[in-house]
């Protein structure tokens, strides 16, 4: 028999997935952004925009998941840093709160982050990356006619106490969270002409580990991500998926879903108590 606590968690998780917006749309969920922990999001510049993908997660199962391309903004607490690398190897770091655009992408499990390529040129950089700090949340941008806007009290609770409760599961190193971090590195690194052979894919995987060399990753997470990557390669070879990127995106979504269930089923009090947890 399934414990009532598990059934309640599954029902709450279904709320994250299935809530429908009414005819007059209410504000969607506040999202948590998964901390980079040494695996910055590499941005790809094309048509004047530099863009990348960041893992996110549901913090409000009582509100609808965002529609694709819904605009978000950073909440107080946490943070986002732009990292520009110059040709001589020097690095410039800038706060990204006022420079980066955040848009929902795949329900609650990922968002796109972008900024104009002109910023790269102004900084004299040859590449851009984004680092997400722990305890970072994103608020849906308010729209006119919102039938149920986010209230200041709601925002304070969600980005404070509830975000802290999620820190251990999403931000701290762990098997599932680190597998999701590496999946995002792969998704952001894959070229349009994806590697077509097992040898080329292994070279791609080695590049992924090099990009994450500055991170302290759970060995189980590395093994899990490697297994996912190879499974997706086999799925491409057998024509069970149209591309490596699509397969890895589905795997990343599943990982976020697994952690979301862990978040919902977690004890109601974070380790160390709630001192200072009202946050925003």
Describe this structure in words.
- With 280 residues, the protein is α+β, with helices and mostly antiparallel strands.
- It is 40% helix and 21% strand.
- The chain has seven helices and eleven strands.
- It has helices at residues 4-18, 117-122, 152-171, 175-189, 198-211, 219-237, 244-265; strands at residues 31-33, 41-42, 44-46, 49-58, 71-74, 80-86, 91-95, 101-104, 110-116, 125-132, 136-140.
- The strands form two sheets. A six-stranded antiparallel barrel has the order 1-4-9-8-5-11. It has a four-stranded antiparallel beta sheet with strand order 2-10-6-7.
- Helix 4 packs across helix 5.
- It is globular, with a radius of gyration of 19 Å.
Topology:
Layout (H helix, E strand, L loop, with lengths): L3 H15 L12 E3 L7 E2 L1 E3 L2 E10 L12 E4 L5 E7 L4 E5 L5 E4 L5 E7 H6 L2 E8 L3 E5 L11 H20 L3 H15 L8 H14 L7 H19 L6 H22 L15
Antiparallel strand pairs: 1-4, 1-11, 2-10, 3-4, 4-9, 5-8, 5-11, 6-7, 6-10, 8-9
Helix pairs in contact: 1-7, 4-5, 4-6, 4-7, 5-6, 6-7
Summarize it:
The protein contains seven helices and eleven strands. The chain is an alpha+beta fold.
What's the helical proportion of residues? 25-40%
Give the strand tally. 11
Order of helices and strands: HEEEEEEEEEHEEHHHHH
What is the 3D form? globular
Number of helices: 7
Mean pLDDT: 87
How big is the Rg?
19 Å
């Amino acid at each position: 028999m399934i414990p009532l606590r598990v059934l309640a968690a599954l029902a709450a998780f279904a709320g994250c997935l299935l809530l429908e917006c009414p005819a007059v749309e209410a504000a969607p969920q506040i999202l948590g952004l998964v901390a980079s922990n040494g695996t910055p999001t590499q941005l790809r510049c094309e048509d004047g925009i530099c863009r990348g993908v960041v893992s996110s997660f549901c913090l409000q199962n009582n509100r609808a998941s965002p529609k694709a391309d819904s605009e978000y903004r950073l909440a107080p607490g946490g943070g986002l840093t732009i990292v520009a690398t110059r040709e001589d190897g020097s690095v410039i770091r800038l706060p990204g709160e006022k420079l980066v655009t955040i848009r929902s992408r795949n329900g609650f499990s990922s968002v796109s982050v972008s900024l104009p390529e002109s910023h790269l040129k102004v900084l004299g950089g040859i590449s851009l990356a984004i680092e997400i700090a722990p305890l970072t949340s994103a608020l849906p941008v308010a729209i006119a006619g919102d039938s149920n806007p986010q209230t200041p009290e709601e925002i304070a609770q969600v980005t404070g106490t509830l975000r802290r409760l999620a820190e251990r599961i999403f931000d701290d190193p762990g098997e599932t969270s680190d597998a999701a971090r590496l999946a995002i590195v792969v998704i952001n690194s894959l070229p349009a002409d994806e590697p077509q052979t097992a040898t080329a894919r292994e070279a791609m995987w080695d590049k992924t580990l090099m990009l994450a060399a500055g991170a302290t990753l759970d060995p189980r997470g590395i093994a899990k991500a490697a297994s996912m990557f190879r499974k997706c390669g086999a799925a491409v070879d057998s024509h069970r998926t149209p591309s490596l990127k699509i397969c890895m995106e589905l795997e990343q979504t599943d990982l976020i879903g697994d952690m979301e269930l862990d978040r919902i089923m977690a004890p109601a009090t974070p380790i160390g108590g709630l001192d200072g947890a009202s946050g925003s």
